[in-house]
Amino acid sequence: MDALQIQGGNRLEGEVSVGGAKNAALPLLAASLLTDGPCVLGRVPALADIRTMLKLLAELGVTVDHQGRRVTLQADGVIHCEAPYDLVKTMRASILVLGPLLARFGEVRVSLPGGCAIGARPIDLHLDGLAHMGAEIAIEHGYVVARAKRLKGCRYYLKFPTVTGTMNLMMAATLADGVTVLENVACEPEVTDLITFLTACGAQIEGAGSDRLVIEGVARLHGAQHDMIADRIEAGTLMLAGAITLGDVTVTDVVPAHLEALIQQLRETGAQVDVDGDRIRTRGTGRPGSVDARTLPHPGFPTDLQAQMMALMTVSDRVSIITETIFESRFTHVAELQRMGADIRLEGQNAIIRGVDRLSGAEVMATDLRASAGLVLAGLVADGETWIRRIYHLDRGYEQLEGKLNSLGAKVSRVKAAS
Ligand code: EPU
Predict the structure, then answer these.
(1) Catalytic site includes residue 81
(2) Which is the closest atom of ligand 1 to the Cα of 188?
(3) Do 210 and 241 have their domain in common?
(4) Residues 354-412: tens digit of each pLDDT
(5) What is the pLDDT averaged over residues 222-235?
């Protein structure tokens, strides 16, 4: 298993381009199942999760042509409507094939994903919404089995604005009979990007960017070409890398409007953040001040940047509180940060972080993607060497993070561990 070795203490400086968003790419790839293609997607990041989704689509019978950043999908010969356990358990986003397969082919078997390191993560709202659209749903031998000759438009209020739940219901509604009104939907930029693509495929969707979508079902969707949005979480991670090393880092090719909450909180810590078109420059001006950050659905502070923000707060000159409201156990990085000398106390959903003068490099291990990114940031400022184990988590969602950090002056190397 590969590990990252980080020599801490280097100030990061320079410009770095941000890639396409993983969490936009996964639903866009799944959406190809709704169309008779071809769908041409650009700016596709080279990530383990993307490869898993492409493998799943190929198993379902989609013709996949993957050339660098461009993927062409042709879903006119799909015959299998089953997403097996071995793929779904490695990547929960596989559940995104549920809505499209049911809407287009009338039946689907998708493995239930099971628990996850960051929380129970049920899919009850995906299933309840589809049931409101007329699907018959049963759980059989660990699989969701759903059937509906043709889904019917309905009004449905989501009890929580789940991101992939919104995507699944919205995709299903594009081919339903009649009008579907979805209330309290997720407004994440990745949802809006999916709407842009579906609209290019012939879908009728109103309300993009708001918490209410009105979708008029159509008989068929055709293929379209689409380049996905920038990865706001990769951008945010690199901005925080600039702040924590008291550096001067400019991320380019981003949509600053997607990062408003982070920009504001970084400014509260004393960092200087300047936005210029599709570029954001972050300068650490001194030891960071404190923030009280609360993760919330977009446009609130993203849970996917919580661990990285916590890393910054560990070296603040004050006390900060970070509250995680989206996932019930997304604090696995805390015990590892403590091994590096961080002073953090957990009280339920709250992490109380008393900044320390310095972190010290240690051997640490991560149990989820964003937790790993938080540990990398801590390693950048820790005294001496930090070893991060189990970096396959990192590779699921960051393309060449060490290469990007090194281009800014960090000293991070990937070490192939003897197995
Ligand atoms: N929830 C339910 N019932 C449901 C669906 C969700 O109770 O039917 C709960 C979840 O248990 C959780 C909360 O609602 O407590 C939010 O979950 P959501 O469904 O919004 O998350 P998701 O769609 O499974 C996506 C991203 C995550 C990101 C979250 C929140 C993708 C593929 N994944 O997950 O990304 O953290 O939204 O923004 O888009 C990551 O990239 O590291 C990652 C975990």
Answers:
(1) no
(2) 38
(3) no
(4) 999 999 999 999 888 999 999 999 999 999 999 999 898 999 999 999 999 999 999 99
(5) 98
Q: Do residue 201 and residue 346 come from a single domain?
A: no
Output the CA 295–ligand 1 centroid distance in Å. Answer: 12
DSSP per-residue codes, 61-93: T-EEEEETTEEEEE-SS----EE-HHHHTT-GG
Q: How confident is the model at residue 218 (pLDDT cuts 50, 70, 90)?
A: very high
Residue 370's identity, in one-letter code, is R
172 and 67 both lie in a single domain: yes
The interaxial angle of helices 369-381 and 232-244, nearest 10 deg, is 20
Number of domains in the chain: 2
Q: Read off the CATH number of the domain in which 139 is found.
A: 3.65.10.10
Q: In angstroms, how far is the first alpha carbon of the chain from the final one?
A: 7
pLDDT at position 131: 98
Same-domain status, 222 and 235: no
Q: Percentage of the chain surpassing pLDDT 90? A: 90
Q: How remote is the CA of residue 219 from the centroid of ligand 1, in Å?
A: 30
